[in-house]
Structures are given as structure tokens and as C-alpha cells.
Specification:
Chain lengths: 461, 279
């Protein structure tokens, strides 16, 4: 029997979407979802589940979609994930569930991400929600969660379901962490998709306080001593942008991807009715090859610029999700591979006018297993540009570690935590990028859930 | 609710507000700043904390109308509430960590320019209360632009007023006043200059000439104020620092003021446009 090909997901036309911030992928409708669900082999030993950082019962939820019981599918997902509409959109499925799908070895894997997204979107659009499985083990002990990103939301959801009195403290004015300041609207609509998932977390009884910076407004000690919390989960993310340390980097027109994306996403600079300014100019070079680089590039494109991605390895090594690279290309972003900046050249007023680069070639594999780029001697050249966006990764914010006695950090600034999330300070747990450095939404969620279990254990022992 | 409890125009363009923010008031220290957002479509605007009242749970902010966002702040009235007031941000002034016996032996001089006079107030007050000798030089173009003269007089040993046109006090700029005081034999262990970037640059030059260490408070561009965006990066001693988390106060001798001024104007085109649209 020949398998049906993978069901294509409908997308906005590249030429149209390059000029708007609406979501690129339109998702499956019911018919498409059922057609795709029918492709699943329902393996006895599903490799996809093992490859999922939160071990969603993938085969079971796909079965429900096939049967047309979408709420049933969403209920199965909800047992393991509190942000299905987000993860269906932003998870690197090709290296996780879909990357392990048996169908993918000979042909195309099941579109698990799009099916997860469909189940979540369908529930939202039809005004139904899976019933939370409540299991009262806590007796209302107060738990503080620092940060409202994926780790914090996942941790808070589980604890609330178990009967703890959970408050999330968020430093910014909007809830969602990187989901709101980092990931653009065209990949994750904020007012519909994200707002709804956060509302679901609130519905479980989680309180969320914005504008509270732990380490400044309140310290971890204040949370215990003044505010009566019995345990704290730190999911403060990896917010500090890295720069290259090359000459000219402080020229006007050089931005971190964090600044550029925060202005556009959190502060909605792309909308005329918001006051926040943003500067893209006619031509933009984005340095880096991860998801954040793709997001910054596609944002700059939508603001009207010609955009180049400058990356020191080849396209095969780009760490971004495959779909993002594919989308970026279709939209007209130019990929300057094997290219590494060595200097930002400013004009007489200190504004960027060009990026001096060298050409690279791939040498021996390094510790990451990727072939490391080597400079080709004498290959210096200049790319004229108005704006340079550095998307080189981020490191954990030291604010909490610096203001909390007894909380150890690693050399790279991450909070030291064991596999359950327990830190070196009693009652304080941590997870997500604050521990690992920049990683993915789903890994942060997984860490948040593990820590929730450890907090439950800690408070009920 | 970050409700405005008091509002007062100090000059036609400078406004003082007392705002309810109990947690912030409880944690604030001299030298720190906060961020306000007027409403959903407003920017996040960093402002230095001009005073805090822990008992009443309030903070005082002073805003000068410069562009569209600051105009929106000043347009708010008593009873209105900010969408957000968050902080305290940045590090407290270095002297906050010093023991009283050490402070009692020290002599500080503040050079305050324009709206930068407001954040000098909590610093002078702290030092005065902790026994240090404090002199404050307030400079403005003319008498009508002077702020905080009465408040400042009560928190320092000596207050020196200067105006460019001589309409009040000493005729000349703040640094000229400082030079005069030193030439008359006064000794200062530490200077603190807060005001427009250009004024801090020249204060630093004057202090260097007089051999007085000087601290400056950098009012750079910022978005989040917690180290996330890097808009506030400044070169200090040849190293890139983030004013929001490494500052806002730095050793003036080490700051690259020319770069800082250039970076401050980065969104000038966009800001001018916003201001024109508003008018």
C-alpha cells in the first residue's frame, strides 16, 4: 500500500505576507487534519513520544483527530502540555517528534506539529476547552513563579492543578516572556493564540503580577520572608544579548536582535498607533543563523528593508527550524553563507554604512560535531548596509543570582540546578533558559513541569 | 493601580508627580531609576526616582516635555493611573554601601543641570542624613528654569545657584561655580554630575582638571531596563556596558560621552516625526 503524501498546510502567499505581520501558516482545517491524522501508523513503540520533551501521547491524540473527536485530542495533549497552540507553532518538530517519525525515514513524517496546533486552535475557535485534571495534593501553600515565559507558565499550571496557591511575577508589562517579546506576530499571534493560552493558565487559578522584577522590586528572600511563599521557581529566561566584540559595534544602527524584536513585538512598533520607534532602513544585515536571526530578518523585511542573513557556516548548519529558513527564503531574504563580520564601518556621523566581512570555509568538526568555519586569507570584503542586527544568542540574566544568597551559578551564568530543578538554595527551584542558556520553548516547558513535580514533593513531604 | 496622587508644574515644561507604587517605594535607593508606561500604546520611559516615601508607598518622578512620550506623561492628571510603573532599576549609588563613620569624613559636591536636578535630591538627602558634608550646585539657563531649590536647601550644607544669564545667583555655568569654590580653597572628595549628557561631559572635564573624582548618571535610550535589549550600551573604560544594569552611574573619567551622545540621538528622526504628528 502506498502512503498518502503529507498534507500540505496552507500559507499566506509569500509576496503578500512579506508586507504584513499576519500569521504565515494558516493551519489545517478539519478535513485536512483528519486526512493527515489518517497517515499515522500508530506504532506500538512510538518513537515520537520519546522524542518529545514533555512526552505527549501523540499516537492517541492523532487517533482522536482521525475519529473527529477534537476535544478528546486536546484533552490528551493537555495532560502533558499547557501551551499546545504555541508548541504546535514554534517547536523544532523536525528534530523532535517528527524527526523520529518512522514514516520520515522513507518518505515524509506525519505533520505532528500542525495536528497539535489544529487541536488547540479548534478548541479555541469553538469555545471549548479540555477539562483540567485536578488532583488536590497541596493545601494551598503559596508558591512563587519568577517569569511568565514557557517554563513559568508550565510550572504554574501543574502546581495550580495540584491545589497550590501560585503567583507568577513578571518583570515586563505583558505576560508570556519570550513568547511575547521574542517571537513575532507572524509566527505566533499574540492577541488570539497566546492570550488564550495564558487565559487558560489563569483559569486554573494562577495569579499573575506584571511589573515586578525579582532581584529588584522584591528579592527571593522577600518572597519567603515578607510575602509568605513556601517555594520559588525561577524561570527568568536567558535575556542578555551577546555581541561579537568587533570594532564599530556601538555605531548607530547596530542593534541586538532582542532590542529589534522587543520594539516590534512587545512594543508593537510596526503599528502606527504605538509610539515606539524602530529603525530598519533600506538594507539590513542580520548576523546569525538561529530562529531569532530568522525572526529578526523577516521582521525587518516586513518593515520594508532588503534583508541579508550573514552566517559563518553553510546553510546545512543553520540552527533555525527548517520551516523558518524555507519561509525566509520564499519571502525574499538573501542568505550570505560562509561569511563572518569582522568590523562595522560607520560614516562620519557614526551611523552604520557597511559591514566588513571575511569569507569562510568549513574545516574539521568541532566539539558540537559541526564542521568549524575557517577564515579564507585575504578574502575581506564589504557589504553596504544601513542596519546591522546581532542575533548571536543570549545568556542568563544575573539579576536573581546576584541578589540571592546561596544560589550558585555556572561559569556561563546559568543557575545550578539538578535534573528535578532543585538549586543550591533550599526551597528554590529553577528551569528553562535561566539554567541551560538559550534553548527552546518546549525544553523550558519540560523543565518547568519537572520542577513543579519536585516542588510538589518538597511541599508535601 | 499606579495612581497619580499629586501633580505640580515646576516650570512650564517640567512636571513633578507623586505616584502610588508601594513595592517600588519600599525597595528604592538613591541612584536608581524606574520605567513608566502611560497607556497601552505608550513607550516604556525610563525616569530617575526623585524621591520615595516608604510609609505612604509612593515615588516621585520629574518629567520634562521633550517628545511625544514625555508630553503624554505630563498630560496626565491627579487621579489618572499609569499603565505601568516598574522598578527600582539599576544599581544604587556607590555611597549607599558606605558606613556612616566613613561618610561623616567625606565631602561631596553635586553639579545638577536642568531636569537632572531632581534625581540629585534623594542622593543629597541620603548623604546629608548619613552625616556627609554635601554641597549642591544647581545650574539653569535662567531663573525661571531652576527647580528644586527650596527642597535642596534643606538637604545640603550649602546650596549654590547659578544661571547662565545671571538672573539668579552666580552668573555662569555649574562647572565655573565649582572652579570658583575650589579656587577659594574648598575641598571635595567626590563630585556627582547629573544633567544633560553634554553638561556631564563638561563637568567631567572640569573635575578632571581639578583632580576630583566624578560620578555621572547616564540617561541612555532603553526599552526593557533589565539588561535585555542592549539599547543602553555605553563604552566605559573601553568596555561595553549596559547602563540599565551596570549603571546608571559610572565613573565619569571612563565614559565615552561623544559616543553616548551620538547613541542617544539614534531615533531622532522617528521621534521628531512622532512629535509633529502629535501637534
Amino acid at each position: 500500500m502506498t502512503r498518502a503524501p503529507r498534507t500540505k498546510v496552507r500559507e499566506q502567499d509569500p509576496k503578500v505576507r512579506a508586507c504584513n505581520f499576519d500569521e504565515v501558516s494558516l493551519g489545517f482545517n478539519l478535513e485536512e487534519a483528519q486526512q493527515e491524522a489518517a497517515r499515522c501508523l500508530h506504532c506500538k513503540n512510538p518513537r515520537c513520544v520519546a522524542a518529545c520533551p514533555v512526552n505527549i501521547s501523540i499516537s492517541e491524540f492523532i487517533e482522536k483527530i482521525k475519529e473527529g473527536d477534537i476535544l478528546g485530542a486536546a484533552t490528551i495533549i493537555a495532560a502533558d502540555s499547557s501551551l499546545p497552540a504555541v508548541c504546535g507553532r514554534v517547536c523544532p518538530q523536525e528534530t523532535q517528534c517528527e524527526g523520529s517519525c518512522i514514516l520520515g525515514f522513507k518518505g515524509e513524517s506525519v505533520a505532528i506539529g500542525n495536528l497539535e496546533r489544529f487541536a488547540a486552535d479548534w478548541c479555541r475557535e469553538n469555545g471549548v476547552a479540555p477539562k483540567a485534571e485536578l488532583e488536590k495534593v497541596g493545601n494551598g501553600q503559596k508558591v512563587a513563579v519568577v517569569g511568565s515565559g514557557p517554563a513559568g507558565l508550565a510550572c504554574a499550571s501543574d502546581l495550580a492543578k495540584w491545589g497550590f496557591d501560585v503567583t507568577i511575577f513578571e518583570a515586563l508589562h505583558k505576560v508570556g516572556g519570550v513568547l511575547v517579546y521574542g517571537i513575532p506576530e507572524f509566527r505566533l499571534p499574540k492577541d488570539t493564540v497566546l492570550a488564550h493560552e495564558i487565559e487558560e493558565v489563569r483559569r486554573l487559578g494562577v495569579k499573575i503580577e506584571t511589573d515586578v522584577i525579582i532581584g529588584r522590586t522584591l528579592t527571593i528572600d522577600d518572597l519567603f520572608d515578607k510575602e509568605g511563599f513556601k517555594a520559588v521557581f525561577v524561570g527568568s529566561g536567558a535575556g542578555l544579548p551577546k555581541f561579537m566584540g568587533i570594532p564599530g559595534e556601538n555605531c548607530n544602527g547596530v542593534f541586538s536582535a532582542n532590542e529589534f524584536l522587543t520594539r516590534n513585538n512587545l512594543m508593537k512598533a510596526y503599528r502606527d498607533d504605538y509610539l515606539t520607534p524602530i529603525h530598519a532602513g533600506r538594507k539590513v544585515c542580520v548576523v546569525g543563523g538561529g530562529n531569532v536571526a530568522m525572526d529578526a530578518a523577516r521582521t525587518a523585511l516586513r518593515l520594508g528593508a532588503e534583508v541579508h542573513i550573514v552566517y559563518r557556516r553553510t546553510e546545512n548548519e543553520l540552527p533555525a527550524r527548517r520551516e523558518e529558513v524555507h519561509h525566509a527564503k520564499a519571502e525574499g531574504i538573501i542568505f550570505d553563507m560562509l561569511t563572518n563580520p569582522v568590523e562595522v564601518i560607520g560614516d562620519e556621523n557614526g551611523w552604520v554604512k557597511a559591514l566588513r566581512c571575511v569569507r569562510m570555509e568549513l574545516g574539521e568538526p568541532d566539539e558540537s560535531g559541526r564542521r568549524s568555519p575557517v577564515v579564507i586569507p585575504g578574502s575581506e570584503f564589504e557589504i553596504e548596509t544601513e542596519t546591522v542586527i546581532m542575533a548571536l544568542g543570549t545568556s542568563p540574566n544575573p539579576l536573581i543570582a546576584n541578589t540571592t544568597e546561596g544560589l550558585q551559578t555556572t561559569r556561563r551564568g546559568g543557575i545550578v540546578a539538578d535534573e528535578t530543578g532543585a538549586t543550591t538554595r533550599e526551597g528554590v527551584f529553577a528551569g528553562g533558559d535561566a539554567v541551560t542558556g538559550a534553548a527552546t520553548v518546549i525544553l523550558a516547558m519540560g523543565a518547568g513541569r519537572k520542577a513543579a513535580a519536585a516542588i510538589r514533593e518538597y511541599l508535601t513531604k | 493601580m499606579y495612581t497619580i496622587l499629586k501633580k505640580e508644574m515646576l516650570t512650564p515644561t517640567i512636571c513633578r508627580m507623586v505616584v502610588r507604587a508601594p513595592r517600588l517605594a519600599a525597595a528604592a535607593l538613591p541612584g536608581q531609576f524606574l520605567i513608566v508606561r502611560t497607556d497601552e500604546t505608550g513607550e516604556r520611559i525610563p525616569l530617575t526616582i526623585s524621591d520615595y516615601d516608604r510609609d505612604n508607598g509612593t515615588v516621585t518622578i520629574v518629567t520634562q516635555i521633550i517628545g511625544a512620550s514625555s508630553a503624554r506623561i505630563v498630560a496626565m492628571e491627579v487621579g489618572d493611573a499609569f499603565a505601568d510603573v516598574v522598578g527600582p532599576l539599576g544599581k544604587a549609588s556607590e555611597f549607599v554601601g558606605l558606613p556612616d563613620e566613613e561618610l561623616a569624613k567625606k565631602s561631596y559636591v553635586f553639579i545638577a543641570g536642568g531636569v537632572g536636578t531632581a534625581p540629585v535630591y534623594p542622593q543629597a538627602k541620603w548623604l546629608h542624613e548619613h552625616g556627609a558634608h554635601v554641597e549642591v550646585i544647581i545650574g539653569a539657563r535662567n531663573e525661571s528654569l531652576l527647580i528644586y531649590t527650596r527642597e535642596m536647601a534643606s538637604v545640603c550644607s550649602e546650596l549654590h545657584i547659578c544661571t547662565d544669564d545671571g538672573s539668579k545667583g552666580f552668573k555662569g555655568v555649574g562647572t565655573a561655580m565649582l572652579e570658583k569654590l575650589v579656587s577659594e580653597g574648598r575641598h571635595f572628595d567626590q563630585a556627582v554630575a547629573i544633567g544633560p549628557m553634554i553638561m556631564m561631559k563638561f563637568s567631567t572635564l572640569a573635575c578632571r582638571k581639578l583632580g576630583i573624582p566624578v560620578t555621572v548618571s547616564l540617561n541612555t535610550l532603553m526599552v526593557d531596563g533589565t539588561g535585555m535589549c542592549g539599547a543602553c550600551r555605553v563604552s566605559v573604560g573601553g568596555k561595553t556596558m549596559f547602563a540599565c544594569v551596570d549603571g546608571p552611574e559610572f565613573d565619569g573619567y571612563l565614559v565615552d560621552f561623544d559616543e553616548a551622545m551620538r547613541r542617544q540621538g539614534q531615533y531622532k528622526t522617528e521621534e521628531t516625526k512622532a512629535k509633529e504628528e502629535m501637534l
